[in-house]
């Protein structure tokens, strides 16, 4: 909320600058985003008057204007605005001036005619387009007739004010108003402030009840009141009111609508005005919308409603979305004569859900979501009625129609002085604490050192004694609280074993040439159900930001494939990425909170090597990615063998180039090539991926790192070649060799596979190199021969191998 510094000073005597005030608010109440003076950076923008104008000889829309800016001679300025008119006071940017966005205005020629400056619209001197009144949106702005020629324009249109932008937290809805902010400043600076409400003395002879009726039999409405005002004159608001609105970021519309918005920023209570003559049946009801019911909002957007939405409806159709936005069909226009004012309190949760679901966030919904004072509606209605009578000549009916009026009691909280001093570490006296509560407008009764505090309903954030302690702390001043060092034994900060493994995993994969990527945890249902490593149910968001982010992910691979696609679409062909993050599983459809499981995954497309004069890089294949995964898994010091078992159970993976990854028989993930069909869906080239359950890897037993003696004795290698059936795998053979190779076998490598000429059908030739070494002595031929013979016998026995 943007708070006008000048407006604040009309109520409270402040002897500090706007910047100092903002600093105090931030240290005591809520955060302050900025302090802005709209005229900052502008110069040489003055009041002028159009003395005469004539059409440009070479243009059908330009005008040559003679402008009096209080100097000896008028200025000639060429202007293309459609609303230029003689004798009007206008905003003139002189030659050498600076307007919005630091644009410098120079002397120039417009189609051959000299022009000495510029006639400005509001947005051209820094006003946001969405606050410029509709009547001035397509032309220059006319200043008041009493504006003095040659004066700077800033004071006339409120640009010399300083605007403090408050970032109000959800619990401090009371500060979304001038009165709420003033109450806080009154307590902080201990200065009096007069926050009275205006009330009309003379009412019309007619009554609201004879012209109109209302109803609200629904729990989502805490209070609902209306009043009829007849014979209004709808016209533009006076300039002072427009300035108040546009400095608060609200576009002026007309005097009636502007008054409801002014009341909202002044008192914090959203209001709405309906054209009585446009209400079907002169009756409105607060109810749930019907399925497929529609409404055209004041923004001229059509909104489809459902039965969870809360609406204000006449006898025919909805005329407003309760607490969010009004309908166009009953809006106040220049033809409006009879007005129905609405002042209500709606359920904050209901309003927030509607605003989020339909992506319609308004000033009204922001306040209803944070809570408004249900006991203050009568004061608000009286203030608004007073202003409409004053500025729109309306005849105000005395009676207020009340459909619902659930008033709330003040919150009563008990607290002791000892409790306050104990928590804050202070030595405050009883009278100091009582003074703080009274400055905040709380009722206080003391019984010894026990305090009975009566908190008004406008402070809906205070319920327990801790809330009161916070109030004492912020008004007393956080800087005044004593500071102490923590006592007790200190511990050395360190990572847990899980955190350390995750960090080591990132370092290892980066060392292997992969780049860390971070993807969204939200995705589409289709992508969430791809590359699944277990049976699970989707976790849907109730109010997703978009259809592309409606479900929590159940794999990391699709996010990486999106990243690969993004890079390749921008001509980055070689992409090697990894991601460590959580996926979300649900054991049943009705499970509320999903299980969060750490995963680590990678996606590689193209080549890992840079092109050099002596090296022609090749694209990665299954074995390149398997080598990366092998290196990573070995770095974890897992206590068990790593196996790769061919599988075709992932429909998104190539059935002949995919394997499950097992560690000591435990399934931990998969590796392989993305199916060409899937790659086409993602618009990517041939890509290899792996996805591992990091939680499982963390839980698996690890080998303790210890020193391994480097042998000073030589190693001996023996080669063995054999014919085996084609269905015998390398892993099966390796398992037999390792199991039967003896204590001195240190390494086994497959160095040849052949199944061509001179090899019988259904057979293949495989050749291995076996390395033996004794770390404590020199090996003899006899020892090696015995171990080697045992390997040969078991290969023949297990696979009917023919040793070659």
From TrEMBL:
Keywords: Aminoacyl-tRNA synthetase, ATP-binding, Cytoplasm, Ligase, Magnesium, Metal-binding, Nucleotide-binding, Protein biosynthesis, RNA-binding, tRNA-binding
Binding note for cofactor: Binds 2 magnesium ions per tetramer.
Record-annotated FDX-ACB domain positions: 711-804
EC numbers: 6.1.1.20
PROSITE patterns: B5, FDX_ACB, TRBD
Chief localisation class: cytoplasm
Domain B5 per the UniProt entry, residue ranges: 408-483
InterPro entries in the record: aa-tRNA-synth_II/BPL/LPL, B3/B4_tRNA-bd, DNA-bd_dom_put_sf, Fdx_antiC-bd, Fdx_antiC-bd_sf, NA-bd_OB-fold, Phe-tRNA-ligase_IIc_bsu, Phe-tRNA-ligase_IIc_bsu_bact
GO molecular function: phenylalanine-tRNA ligase activity
Subcellular location: Cytoplasm
Reaction(s) the record says it catalyses: tRNA(Phe) + L-phenylalanine + ATP = L-phenylalanyl-tRNA(Phe) + AMP + diphosphate + H(+)
Top EC category: ligase
Domain TRNA-binding per the UniProt entry, residue ranges: 39-154
Source taxon at top rank: Bacteria
Binding site for Mg(2+): 461, 467, 470-471
Needed cofactors: Mg(2+)
Record NCBIfam families: pheT_bact, YtpR
Assembly notes: Tetramer of two alpha and two beta subunits.
Family that this chain belongs to: Belongs to the phenylalanyl-tRNA synthetase beta subunit family. Type 1 subfamily.
Protein name, UniProt field: Phenylalanine--tRNA ligase beta subunit
Lineage of origin: Bacteria, Bacillati, Bacillota, Bacilli, Lactobacillales
Gene name, Swiss-Prot/TrEMBL: pheT
């Amino acid at each position: 909320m943007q708070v006008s510094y000048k407006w604040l000073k009309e109520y409270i005597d402040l002897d500090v600058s706007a910047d100092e005030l903002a600093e105090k608010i931030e240290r005591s109440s809520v955060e302050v985003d900025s302090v802005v003076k709209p005229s900052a950076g502008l110069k040489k923008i003055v009041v002028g008057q159009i003395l005469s104008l004539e059409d440009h000889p070479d243009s059908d829309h330009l005008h040559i204007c003679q402008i009096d800016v209080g100097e000896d001679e008028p200025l000639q300025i060429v202007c293309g605005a459609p609303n230029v008119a003689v004798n009007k006071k206008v905003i003139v940017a002189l030659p050498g001036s600076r307007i919005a966005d630091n644009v410098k205005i120079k002397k120039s020629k417009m189609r051959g005619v000299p022009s000495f400056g510029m006639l400005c619209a509001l947005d051209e001197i820094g006003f946001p387009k969405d606050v410029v009144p509709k009547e001035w949106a397509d032309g220059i702005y006319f200043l008041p007739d009493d504006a003095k020629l040659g004066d700077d324009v800033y004071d006339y249109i409120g640009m010399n004010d300083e605007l403090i932008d408050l970032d109000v937290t959800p619990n401090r809805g009371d500060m979304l108003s001038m009165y709420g902010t003033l109450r806080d400043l009154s307590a902080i600076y201990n200065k009096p402030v007069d926050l009275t409400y205006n009330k009309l003395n003379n009412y019309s002879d007619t009554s609201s009840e004879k012209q109109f009726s209302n109803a609200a039999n629904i729990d989502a409405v805490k209070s609902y009141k209306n009043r009829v005002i007849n014979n209004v004159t709808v016209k533009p608001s006076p300039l002072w009111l427009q300035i108040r609105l546009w400095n608060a970021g609200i576009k002026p519309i007309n005097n009636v609508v502007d008054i409801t918005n002014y009341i909202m920023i002044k008192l914090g209570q959203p209001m709405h005005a309906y054209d009585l003559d446009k209400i079907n049946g002169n009756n409105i009801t607060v109810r749930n919308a019907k399925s497929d019911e529609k409404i055209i909002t004041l923004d001229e957007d059509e909104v489809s409603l459902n039965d969870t939405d809360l609406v204000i409806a006449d006898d025919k159709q909805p005329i407003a979305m309760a607490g969010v936005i009004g309908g166009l069909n009953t809006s106040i226009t220049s033809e409006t004569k009879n007005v129905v004012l609405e002042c209500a309190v709606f359920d904050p949760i209901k309003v927030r859900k509607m605003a989020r679901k339909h992506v319609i966030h308004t000033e009204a919904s922001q306040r209803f979501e944070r809570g408004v004072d249900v006991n203050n509606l009568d004061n608000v209605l009286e203030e608004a009625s007073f202003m409409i009578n004053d500025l729109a000549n309306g005849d105000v009916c005395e009676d207020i129609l009340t459909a619902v009026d659930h008033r709330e009691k003040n919150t009563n909280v008990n607290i002791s002085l000892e409790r306050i001093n104990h928590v804050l570490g202070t030595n405050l006296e009883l009278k100091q604490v009582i003074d703080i509560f009274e400055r905040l407008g709380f009722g206080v009764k003391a019984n010894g050192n026990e305090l009975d505090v009566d908190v008004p309903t406008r402070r809906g954030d205070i319920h327990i004694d801790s809330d009161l302690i916070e109030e004492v702390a912020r008004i007393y001043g956080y800087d005044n609280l004593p500071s102490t060092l923590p006592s007790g034994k200190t511990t050395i900060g360190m990572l847990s074993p899980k955190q350390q493994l995750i960090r080591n995993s990132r370092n290892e994969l980066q060392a292997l040439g992969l780049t860390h990527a971070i993807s969204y945890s939200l995705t589409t249902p289709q992508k969430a159900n791809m590359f699944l490593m277990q049976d699970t149910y989707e976790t849907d968001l109730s109010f997703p930001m978009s259809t592309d982010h409606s479900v929590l992910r159940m794999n990391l691979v699709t996010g990486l494939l999106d990243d690969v696609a993004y890079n390749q679409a921008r001509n980055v062909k070689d992409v090697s990425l990894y991601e460590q993050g959580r996926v979300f599983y649900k054991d049943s459809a009705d499970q509320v909170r999903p299980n969060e499981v750490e995963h680590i995954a990678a996606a590689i497309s193209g080549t890992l090597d840079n092109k050099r004069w002596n090296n022609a890089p090749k694209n990665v294949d299954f074995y390149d990615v398997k080598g990366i995964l092998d290196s990573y898994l070995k770095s974890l010091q897992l206590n068990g063998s790593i196996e790769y078992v061919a599988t075709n159970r992932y429909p998104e993976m190539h059935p002949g180039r995919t394997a499950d990854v097992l560690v000591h028989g435990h399934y931990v993930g998969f590796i392989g090539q993305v199916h060409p069909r899937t790659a086409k869906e993602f618009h990517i080239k041939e890509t290899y991926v792996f996805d591992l359950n990091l939680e499982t890897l963390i839980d698996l037993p690890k080998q303790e790192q210890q020193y391994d003696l480097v042998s000073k004795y030589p190693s001996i290698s023996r080669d063995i070649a054999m014919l085996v059936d084609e269905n015998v795998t390398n892993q099966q053979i390796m398992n037999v060799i390792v199991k039967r190779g003896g204590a001195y076998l240190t390494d086994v490598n497959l160095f040849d596979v052949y199944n061509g000429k001179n090899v019988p059908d259904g057979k293949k030739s495989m050749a291995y190199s076996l390395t033996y070494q004794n770390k404590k002595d020199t090996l003899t031929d006899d020892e090696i021969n015995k171990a080697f013979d045992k390997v040969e016998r078991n290969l023949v026995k297990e696979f009917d191998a023919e040793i070659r």
